[in-house]
Amino acid sequence: MKKLLVIALMLTFAVSNAQIAPATTPKKITFEEKVEILYNRLTRGLTLEADQIAKIKPLIETIIKTREAAVEELKSKKTSGTPLTKEELAARRAKREADEAAFKAEMKKILTPQQYTQFELGLTRKRANGDAFPTEKEAENKP
After folding, report:
1. In this structure, are residues 12 and 5 in contact, taking their beta carbons and an 8 Å threshold?
2. Sequence-ordered list of residues with C-beta below 8 angstroms from that of 68, at least 6 positions apart, any chain
3. What pLDDT does 125 receive?
4. CA-based, 20 to 30 A from 78: which of 59, 122, 140, 141?
5. Taking the CA of residue 106 as centre, how many other CA atoms within 13 Å lie in the half-sphere pointing to its CB?
């Protein structure tokens, strides 16, 4: 009786494992898709004109390129086995903050004051409810 029970459990286990789909590797996102995703995230809630869009897209492309270069640099450091020092980490952080400030300055030049406040509100809003962008009602109430 014990053998029959063990065999039944083994068959149940084998059948349940056979139905699990093998893990697939995620699809690589192309450069253009990355640009479009970031563009949509940064300009959500803004009504932009064609000339504004033409000025914003190259800025976003440079952001993506610098991010990819930073990732490649980190991968090369990791494969070489040399960890980043505190000074290198501080320099990377300072460069990232400077790049972000430059991007915001360029966006301030491109967007109207109302659009820029909406843009800033979307960047700084806490993600308490899972949505980083304000509703129209919240944006109107914000000075």
Report:
1. no
2. 31
3. 61
4. 59
5. 16
pLDDT, position 7:
83
Token pair recorded at residue 36:
């479009």
Mind giving me the DSSP string for the chain?
A: -HHHHHHHHHHHHHHHHHTSPPP-PPPPPPHHHHHHHHHHHHTTT----HHHHHHHHHHHHHHHHHHHHHHHHHHHHHHHT-PPPHHHHHHHHHHHHHHHHHHHHHHHHHS-HHHHHHHHHHHH---TTS--S--HHHHHH--
Angle of helix 113-124 versus helix 31-42 axis, rounded to 10: 110
CA distance 46 to 132: 14
- Per-residue pLDDT of the chain in tens (143 residues, 90 and over written 9): 778 777 877 777 776 666 666 667 778 888 899 889 888 888 888 888 888 888 889 999 999 999 899 888 888 888 888 777 889 889 989 998 999 999 999 989 998 899 888 888 877 765 555 554 555 555 555 44
